[in-house]
Records
---
Amino acid sequence: MKGLAALLLLAATAAPAAAHHGWSGYDSTKELTLTGTIKESGYEHPHGHVRLATPGKVWLVVLAPPSRMTSRGLPASKLAVGATATVVGYPNKTNDEEMRAERITIDGATVELR
Amino acid sequence: MTHAGQAGWLAWLESTGAATAMRQWLWLYPVVEILHILGFVVLVGSAAMFDLRLLGLSRQLPVTGMERHLLPWARAAALVIIPTGALMFIAHATEFAGNPAFRLKLLLLAAAALNAAIFHLRPFRRVTEWDHGTTAPLTARFAAGCSLALWTGVIACGRLLAYF
């Protein structure tokens, strides 16, 4: 019973587990521009993230450290679930559902993340 | 421990208040990182200066005197490094536990600690025979070389775990 609870907990927390990478893990020769709906967001260290539902695919989009996003005018409230966001960035070299965003545009305001 | 048991334990670590604070408080994570760096600068710096003395530099300085000065600083630094490292670990325990650079770092840390313990239990016992003005015995110089290599490896793995 305890094991089952632990597994459920793991399933709930393991989602952004692969979100800790340097830029070198991403292919900068393949720039992507994705527009979609935010399904989930994490304003967390070392990097924030959103799950972005685009036509045909849900991307894990790795953002910047929360302190940087705050100082550049992207507070946690802007990454609201249901909001529309456009990100420009690069796909992960090994995980084809993850990308790292160079910049993000929400409500017409673009924030540089690097 | 079973694989599921281990996964559950790691997930529990990530769910603790301290782990959540590390991920969500705006400045806690960088402050902890800075303290961790200050700590290992003092620890590895102390170890490296002592190792270089054992390898034959500044032979006019007594080894015992250097040990009395550097070891308390190294110990105090460990008291900063271990809790700050643990905080960073629990923030993303599952991810770190599976990270090859992190695993190698722990292995090298254990080897560095073992190397220091063996040095203190063996060649250092007879330090009065080679305290200053002479070459340290081969076992002591070997331990010094191992220490420099192992600590370099620990720092390299610590930095590289963000890239794996």
---
Amino acid sequence: MFNAKAKAEILKDLIDVTSPLVNEVKFNVSEKGINLRAVDPAHVAMVDLTIEKDAFDEFKADEMELGVDMDKFAGIMRLASSGDSISLTYDDKANRLVIQIGNLVRKMALIDTAGMPDPKMPTLELPGKVVVKASELIQGVRASEAISDHLAISMNKDNFELFAEGDTDTVNLSLSKDMLEGLTSNGDCKSLFSIDYLSNMIKPVKSSEPLTIHLGNDNPTRVEFAIANKKGHVTYLLAPRIESE
Amino acid sequence: MPQNAVFKNITTTNSSPSTSLCALCRGTKLLCGKSRCPVLVRYHSQNKLKPFLAAKMVHGASPPSVFVGRVGYPKVSIGPLVPPRMGNTSLYDAPEQWLDRSLDEIVDFRSSLIRGKHTVNVYDVEKSDKTIEFTRELGLSENCVFTEALFNKRPTGRLRFYDDIQPHGPSAPLKKMNITNPKYNQRIEKAYYDTDLKSAEAVFSLYKNNIEISKIQKAFSVGAFGIGKYRRFVPTRWSITAVDSQIGKQLMDYTKQLPWINTFRVYYHNQYDNRWIILMMPSEFQYELIEAWYPNTTWNQYGNTISMYNSYEFNEGRTTYADIGGCYYAGRLAVNETLQKDKRQAATVILREAHPGYIMPIGVWNVRESVRRTLKQPYQNFDTLQQSLVYIGQKLDIPMKRWIQNSALLKHRMFQTRLDDFTG
């Protein structure tokens, strides 16, 4: 059994985080809320997303899996305007998700979850941790996008830095400890990342929200932020690029 | 002209347009750097046609072939392409069979195709108008069709070259045309009469039934496919890419579900002084086309350095039109054909090195057919990307480092780690 009601924004958050990475997702539904974990086809990024039951206006569910075609779901959610209350019900006879937007009832066939993987979250020792306002990072990534396809994120015990270099131009964003909401780092950390992935990752983040970045040396980064009015949580893992020359 | 002025001109060849050199060279010295003189190639084929351009009419066996212009869209010029020749001319419009011909031969028979122009609105596919009807019938036919075209004035214009469509000869506004004995291709005819069949489905099912791409594209351009009310004329150049892209897309959806190849494969083939390398890497499906144009080749006439362009897509596909244009989609179609035959998927990079012997643009078909042919060659197997790149380095003149810098897929493969690398 699955029966939930939520504001359109909550579901749109979920789509924005997930759909740039994967087309088909397995929602793990339980009485606590919804969780999903997905890896992109190139195995470069992983997203783990949880939306607590409290984020919904109504939520009743048994433990179950729903296989969702994200493109289709996103298309349906485009019918809703912000503020609309959306109701989701699982129809177990037809294996469909019944989505109600206002007076509109849309029944969406679900995908068989049998073949869908359960990706494992790698355990990583990442010595650096910084809490930064999302708007700063968004600005830095946007500026870098114009000149390169990758950028370097680095930190030491007093400073957090983002650096990108093109053929002729450079971008540098440097934030000292007092400009950040938090910084802990044992020594220097530096890793390179693909800007394509980073910009997809930060797209759904609200610019006023804080973002937590865990960093190592040539190691994946773990980025965490809240969604769904702080009643949801996203952990995003991104594998690094290695130095080209 | 004083003699030192002549020398001065010669020493500045690199920065000045090559046309100014033609007067100095007159086809003898090949100052433009090409291996043959394009002016003479054109001239010779024009000369053969001259006697036929005196009259305001032409009659002959159309291969069959039609042309839909794009200038002025949605008011465009449609009409037949007719050579002043009888007999079997089917080769003239069958790019699938052209690779074994020299550039001169292709230019030769293409330039004899005289184009009749009749201005219509693209939505008027069903209008009762003889020229529209006959043009459509040519588009649907599979035999050479005897065609008579009466013009308002004498056909003029040089041989026309385009980046993506096959060249054709002089043109003139049509006064009247007539055709005898068109024989429709049965499967195309069936799709034409089915006004509930979406054009994407029609195109793909014809392709699956082994109808040549050039035939599908021809019928597509005369508005023969699709749901009745959406039918329209499609400019020839758009129709070529529409068909390539649509078939490629549908093949690709299936390719992406197949198992990966196990080793790195490298194919090599040289066609019209274009060196083609196709590298397949064991990975989920990705695709990239990189073109390198030497100075004095078709699309790098005036530069003095090699210019390189690429377009690519990762596994999720692309939503915007490729910068490279129609070639990208033609290559993607050919790559997917081979992967599907092998029942495998792979990340594929096509490296095209266009050397100065490639003197004129001949159309997108060249990419489609050259890639097809390259993929028919025996391939070299390698265990690592490094080994493959060493081999490719022996086949191409441009250093591998420069190819890698210009390649999104190679950079991704070499410099982007995967999460699996860290799970230990």
